[in-house]
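Running this now, will post back.
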Amino acid sequence: MADNSAFSVIFNMAEQKKGQSSKQEKKLREENQALQNEVNELKAQISQLADKIEGGKRPPAVPEGFLSPDRKKSIQYLSDEYDDLMSSKTKIMDEMRIVLTRLDAIEKKCQEMALAIEAFEDYSYKNNLKIMG
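Update: finished.
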């Protein structure tokens, strides 16, 4: 009888650890999925922003003798402003590419974490004994 009670204590302890392990695994899976969802949302937002930025087009050129000197100055000013905006746009697009690269790295780490969780789960199941009786 003493052997049976010791066995039942050990068995109960193993079951408790198994329950704790599965709770931890579930929590890790949920956190990993939340991170992947966040990465996907950020990528979508950046993509939408890039599409909005890319939407601007340069207006057609005006014939040379068509404008007065004051209008030429005004147009030159606007042209310079446009060039500054295009320069800013280029910088923003470069920064967005950097952010997307970082998001890709985070997504890759999330996928690696998911694989590690699965490997951990497989390992924990491999070492559990199921006694039928």
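Residues 2-43+65-126 form one domain. More later if anyone needs it.
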